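Data card: per-record layout.
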Amino acid sequence: MTAVIDTPGREPGHGPGRQGRQGRRTGRGPGDGPGRWAAPPRPSWEEPPGPAGVAGKGLVLAFACLGVLFPLWIVLVTSLSSRRTIDEAGGLVMVPRGITFVAYRELLSGGQVTRAAVISVLITLVGTLFSMAVSVLCAYGLSRTGSLGHRWILLVLLATMFFSAGLIPTYLLVQSLGLTDTYLALILPSAISVFNILVLRGFFMGISQELVDSARIDGAGDFRILWQIVMPLSRAVLAVITLFYAVGYWSAWFNASLYLNDQDMMPLQNVMIQLVQKQEAPVGLGQAIKTGELSGLAVQMAVMVMALLPVAVLSPFVQKHFKKGMLTGAVKG
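The structure for this 333-residue chain is written out next.
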């Protein structure tokens, strides 16, 4: 409905600019009198959706959720299916029948997959802790405008986002440092993300300077200010960045395939690649697959579930911090 604004009359000096700001003049018709002005209509995207729009959005969201959950459901059901059920389905299983945990029991019985899972967990924990420590310290130093050389350091970090040395120089550097066939090669080359540092810096700069100044007057040093004031106020962005680093370490496979030659040191993602792409059964499962006790497809799906499970479990707990942590930090930066 068009709102109508009654004005007693037009005052001297009011030109077309004032008339344009207040609204447009209504056409002559029954009930229209002099001095009646109508507000301009709002754009269509600002209007609340009607029943058809709400139903359409719900339908699109349902199809999107189905497109994400249906493949995960197939992977999970296939990993829990017996060899007979998989053979009857001709491959992937959609309807659960004959549920069995043989694939998971064999994978977690102490063979290559168990060792790879432990390696992935340790690399994720140690790497995330190291990356967060360096990123928080770097971001806090860059957020203090009076710190020594913060502007030049920031420019150098920004340059690394657009220019890199390349794969061969990076490999030669890792080799010259003696990091090949060590777990440090899985952490140090990808320990720092400049984007995450910039997000943390933007959030830290948004913290009230009065709090920092009052703590400094009370005798607190930089490390105490960071630990007791800045970090407690930045729980949201810290949770999001921690999840980013953890998912990156857990899902990483390229560094291991590049810098590790010992198969016993391979993380879970590389074992999954060997199993799914190269069709190589993990150590300890080859005989079970040959004798027909296990289906190779069930083992492949079980390894996929093990690789996806930590991310699927942790993401809902950090989801509530995404809007406050990421968007606020990005806008303030």
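Known properties of this structure: The first strand starts at residue 4 and ends at 6. Strands lie at 4-6, 24-25, 36-38.

See the next section for split statistics.
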